[in-house]
Amino acid sequence: MLLVVTLVAGRPEGVAVALLLLGAAYATTLVVDDLPLDGRSAIVGAALLAIGELAHLSLGARSAVTQEAGAAAHRVAWIAVLALGAMALCGVVLAVADLLQTGGIAIEVVGVAAALAAVGLLVLAARQNHAG
Predict the structure, then answer these.
(1) I want to staple 114 with a disulfide (CB 3.0 to 4.6 A). Which of 45, 75, 81, 93 is the partner?
(2) Are 99 and 52 in contact (CB under 8 A)?
(3) Could you tell me the CA-to-CA distances from 116 to 19, 69, 86, 112 in Å, in that order?
């Protein structure tokens, strides 16, 4: 609901808060259900990434002066590729984590690599947004 209000109001600051609340709700569900490893988390992460990108795209479209023909379609296609890449990467991390099931340093290395990859994807998306 907060995301809808943010988009209607045209305020980009609320997008991050809305995504934070959606992620927190999902994390709360995982804690309450006490699942050891949720395979759907890759889908949820990719969906949150796509939602954030599409929200900013729609907000940016309001203030865009003139765009080249097909620029919006190109951006939406890029967001889809980005989300699919994030989902694939998260799926690989989940598969590795499921295989390791040991706890030690190996799990932490995989977690750090996943976090760095996620941050890298966000930086890449922000650069594309800023350049495009």
Answers:
(1) 93
(2) no
(3) 19, 35, 12, 6
- The per-residue b/e assignment along 30-44, b for 16 or more CB within 10 angstroms, e otherwise, is eeeeeeeeeeebbeb
Exposure on the CB side of residue 19, measured as CA atoms within 13 A: 19
Whether 37 and 94 have beta carbons less than 8 Å apart is answered as: yes
- Contact predicate 90/114, CB 8 Å: yes
C-alpha span between 71 and 73 (Å, rounded): 5
Task: Return the number of other C-beta atoms located less than 10 Å from residue 49's C-beta.
Answer: 22
Q: Kindly report, residue by residue over 57-99, the tens digit of the pLDDT.
A: 888 877 766 667 677 788 888 999 999 999 999 888 887 777 7
